[in-house]
Q: What sequence folds into this?
């Protein structure tokens, strides 16, 4: 049985709420931490507000040095952070190491950007007009449980580089690396009050940040459903908002592709992080003439996926994040579902779910339309290029996707036609520190990573200087 997620414990004689953080592979309590509420959110905003004038006044080279120092400090603690993330989020240790590497790289990238936040000069009559990119002030960052510190770093690094101060609210299920980050930042010389972490529920602590009059912007990653609430709440004070939301991404395999390579690569593109990935290529669309070959190759790979202890170096897939998530995912595979392939999963404690392929699936089925956020893939056939594009775009989402073909012109034609923000051709990798990431349609607003992220943490100011000629 799971221990209660929230209890009350005593600190200094008075009862304060506490949060039990679980390890999804064992269901055991990994840590008990104080649970932040509205008061703690207000106090964090006040600290960030007080620290803002001095932080924005730090000279660009000094701010760059501080962020490089932070990147070094994170690199020193990389293995420890990877183990903590693997245990708390239930992800394979190899993946967690890769993610912590990306955290370090993200801070290095934006440390380099501090001195390259350029403006324009614009020819006008009677003087000169110039633009500046000014920081926004206090920015609230609200993040999910699937890639806890990685997604936080995509926001923290450009936000701090631009001269803002932050309040980060990680998901209650996975707050541990964010809390560790706050300590590392302080020890690395980032001034007190610049980085504030509040670990509390979205409905109270998160909602308070969204409505708070002293918060200039909310950068959110999470479900489309909560994203709508955030956008509506932020509208009350005309806060800036960026939203990185859900997905139901297509993996298009044309008959002229290297079908074996596409089938070998497809499982990790949908079962990576146990399918709890906004970019999961969970709709595998295969040209009907190669469907049988593709399914045969895919099934063989799925059967061999090693599901188990996240800290075992051989593990390829861990458990789901919670009992509730397992129940939700299971609802997409009811008795009688068309299971074409299924892998193994351990028994006993832990929120395990085997990698599962459904085929054939009707494009109107719930499993083919909704974001499952678990290791369940739907395989659907298409006749020709037009039908492939129509099926790919038949969704409210538009985050990611892949196109497998040996025909270069088709690859580009289809890439231009698919309504998604991040695509890959003959590959399933779409997330890089140096390239923009974000969604079309109901997958989000704005872009993270790459040079583009800085636009979303600054305001453009135009200044006209009359020179009399
Ligand atoms: P949720 O939307 O449930 O939660 C995300 C964050 O928002 C959590 O910190 C949560 O707090 C908080 N939150 C919940 N309600 C509110 C509220 N009313 N006001 C303010 N904050 C709130 O998403 P999940 O954590 O379940 O993450 C999974 C979702 O994230 C998937 O849909 C996935 O597609 C999406 N995602 C998108 C990515 C992208 O870049 N596009 C990347 C990764 C995930 P708490 O949980 O602590 O209560």
A:
């Amino acid at each position: 049985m799971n221990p209660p997620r929230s209890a009350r414990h005593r600190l200094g004689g008075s009862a304060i709420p506490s949060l039990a953080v679980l390890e999804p592979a064992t269901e055991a309590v990994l840590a008990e931490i104080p649970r932040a509420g509205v008061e703690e959110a207000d106090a964090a905003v006040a600290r960030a507000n007080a620290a803002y004038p001095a932080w924005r006044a730090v000279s660009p080279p000094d701010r760059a040095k501080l962020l490089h120092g932070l990147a070094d400090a994170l690199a020193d603690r990389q293995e420890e952070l990877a183990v903590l993330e693997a245990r708390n989020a239930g992800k394979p240790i190899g993946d967690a190491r890769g993610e912590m590497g990306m955290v370090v790289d993200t801070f290095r990238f934006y440390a380099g950007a501090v001195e390259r936040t350029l403006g324009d000069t614009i020819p006008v009559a009677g003087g000169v007009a110039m633009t500046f990119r000014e920081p926004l002030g206090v920015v609230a960052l609200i993040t999910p449980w699937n890639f806890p510190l990685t997604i936080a770093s995509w926001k923290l690094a450009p936000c701090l580089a631009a001269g803002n101060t932050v309040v980060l609210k990680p998901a209650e299920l996975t707050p541990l690396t964010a809390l560790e980050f706050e300590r590392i930042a302080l020890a690395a010389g980032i001034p007190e009050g610049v980085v504030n972490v509040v670990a509390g529920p979205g409905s109270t602590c998160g909602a308070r940040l969204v409505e708070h009059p002293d918060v200039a912007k909310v950068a959110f990653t999470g479900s489309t459903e909560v994203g709508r609430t955030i956008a509506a709440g932020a509208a009350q004070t005309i806060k800036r908002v960026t939203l990185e939301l859900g997905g139901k991404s297509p993996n298009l395999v044309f008959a002229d592709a290297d079908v074996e390579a596409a089938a070998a690569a497809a499982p990790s593109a949908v079962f990576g992080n146990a399918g709890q990935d906004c970019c999961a290529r969970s709709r595998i669309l295969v040209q009907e003439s190669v469907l049988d070959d593709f399914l045969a190759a895919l099934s063989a790979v799925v059967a061999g996926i090693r599901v188990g202890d996240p800290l075992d170096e051989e593990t390829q897939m861990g458990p789901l994040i919670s009992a509730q998530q397992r129940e939700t995912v299971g609802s997409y595979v009811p008795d009688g579902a068309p299971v074409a392939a299924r892998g193994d999963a351990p028994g006993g404690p832990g929120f395990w779910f085997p990698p599962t392929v459904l085929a054939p699936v009707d494009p109107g089925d719930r499993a083919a339309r909704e974001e499952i956020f678990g290791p369940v893939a739907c395989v659907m056939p298409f006749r020709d290029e037009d039908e492939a594009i129509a099926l790919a775009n038949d969704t409210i989402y538009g985050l990611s996707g892949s196109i497998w073909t040996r025909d270069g012109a088709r690859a580009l034609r289809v890439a231009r036609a698919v309504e998604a923000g991040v695509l890959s051709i003959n590959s399933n990798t779409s997330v890089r520190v140096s390239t923009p990431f974000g969604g079309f349609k109901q997958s989000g607003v704005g872009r993270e990573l790459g040079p583009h992220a800085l636009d979303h943490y600054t305001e453009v100011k135009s200044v006209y200087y009359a020179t009399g000629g």
Notes: Residues 1-14 have pLDDT under 50 and may be disordered. The chain is about 35% helix and 20% strand. The CA atoms of residues 110 and 289 lie 47 Å apart.
